[in-house]
Design goal:
InterPro entries: CENP-O. Belongs to the CENP-O/MCM21 family. The chain is an alpha+beta fold. The protein folds into two domains: 88 residues, no CATH class; 74 residues. Helices cover 28% and strands 37% of the residues. The strands form two sheets. The chain has a five-stranded antiparallel sheet. The radius of gyration is 20 Å and the shape is elongated. It starts with a strand and ends in a 6-residue tail after the last helix. The relative contact order is 0.11. The N terminus and C terminus are likely disordered.
Length: 175
């Protein structure tokens, strides 16, 4: 028999099926639903993940060990949910920046969207600024480090440009 539970304080739901459970984790960014990831978990004789569609770059086995999935499944699912939501949020931010700012060119990004290198041009100045966003904490949507550089230009110049061209500040909405 099936017992269905929706955990309102989290973004995942699960269905118990005898010796196992099916868990769905929904991701969202700025109140927009993005992706759903699923896990089938065997509960007996030991807790283990039997099937899933979690992207391979999410360290699922490490998270299960670090969060002691055997004794506290909820802590493991909460941590996994943070990783998946942060990934989905970073991916959505990159998509929104590309859609809303045509002068922004993505020079480099990795599959986890944890390192982004963007090139944008300041309209009137015709100055190219290279922006590197480093997301060291894979449970967050915001970068851990932001580095701006422009050939032959000082940091003061780059900082001044950001305030002279408010449209560039709109980029920060997605950082």
């Amino acid at each position: 028999h099936k017992i269905y539970h929706h955990l309102w304080e989290t973004n995942y739901k699960h269905i118990f099926l005898g010796k196992g459970a099916c868990v769905s984790i929904a991701t969202a960014y700025e109140d927009v639903f993005l992706d759903t990831f699923n896990l089938e978990i065997d509960l007996k004789p030991t807790v283990k993940i039997s099937r899933h569609n979690i992207p391979p770059f999410i360290p699922l086995n490490n998270l299960a060990e670090q969060n002691n999935m055997q004794t506290d499944l909820r802590v493991f699912l909460d941590t996994l949910s943070k990783h998946l939501n942060a990934f989905a949020g970073r991916k959505q931010q990159l998509k929104l920046v590309k859609e809303k700012h045509k002068s922004v060119e993505v020079m480099e990004s990795n599959v986890l969207c944890s390192l982004l290198v963007l090139l944008f041009t300041v309209p009137r100045e015709k100055t190219a600024v290279l922006c590197t966003l480093d997301y060291t904490d894979h449970t967050r949507c915001l970068p851990t480090r932001v580095h701006l550089e422009s050939e032959g230009r000082s940091f003061t110049f780059i900082f001044r440009l950001l305030f002279e061209y408010p449209k560039l500040l709109l980029l920060y909405k997605y950082w």
